[in-house]
Amino acid sequence: MSGLIYIQTDGKVLRKEAAIMKKIALVYTSASDLLLKTMQDAVRAQFDEEVEIREYLDPSVIDEAKQYGYVTEAGARKFVNMFEKASAEGADIIVCSCSSMGDVGANAKALYNMMGQKFMGVDEGMAAAAVQAGKVIGLIGTVNTTFAPSTHTIERAAAAIGKDVHIIGKMVDVFNAGHDEYVSAMLAGCREIEDKIDCFVFAQASMYSYADEFKAALKKPCFFSVDLGAAAIRKALEA
Questions:
Q1: What local confidence, expressed as pLDDT, does residue 10 receive?
Q2: Each residue's pLDDT tens digit, 42-75
Q3: Looking at the structure, do residues 233 and 119 belong to the same domain, yes or no?
Q4: Second label for 174, Cα 20 to 30 Å away, from 40, 142, 201, 205?
Q5: Is position 117 within any domain?
């Protein structure tokens, strides 16, 4: 996208093209400072030019989902309100950046695209890569609320290429563990299903901080939403 700048010089008006910075809205429920920076860095690395990243967060949405075991009506409304705010503030693309809210994002996407607003889920790129890599996919998560929406995201990616896939989910209860305990428990959980699958999908964006360790320790391909999501954002903006 470009705009026009008119400059008065010695009584003459010069016409000059000027790039307009792309606005990328990342919509979370909650996120650590590390995750916010990791996602920012991954997105910026995809573009030669500067981009504006705006982040929208409401931790109460995921707190309610964890409490009830599903996304509540009120939680869905609050999350969609953030989409609406991002759109009203001129986002070139809105990115649903919470795996637990994947079904909310998928339902919103069709409507926003119909209205000319680019919209995607951060884990769409990861799901697309995984279904290309194999038919049996190991889905790893640390919160129960991520499994159903992440499964649906993978199934939509498979349907898009006319492929049947089987998903084996593995819950590892280490959401708030320290580094060593987290990595050890995650690898143990992954190895329980590794011989049954073709590749791993790590459902939550926060898992990307451990990507190098997991890839080095596991035999099967590992897919994460941060790097593949950032690449998908660039591709969507270029479309």
A1: 55
A2: 999 999 999 999 999 999 999 999 999 999 999 9
A3: yes
A4: 40
A5: yes
Examine residue 7 and state whether it is found in any structural domain, yes or no: no
Give domain status of residue 15, yes or no.
Answer: no
Asked whether residue 53 falls in the same domain as residue 142, the answer is: no
The residue behind tokens 């889920």 is 121
Query: Quick one: 105 and 89 in the same domain?
Result: yes
The count of domains in the chain is 2
Q: Are residues 57 and 109 located together in one domain of the fold?
A: yes
User: Using H for helix, E for strand and C for coil, what is the string for 34-63?
Assistant: HHHHHHHHHHHCCCCCCEEEEEEECHHHHH
| pLDDT value of residue 174 | 85
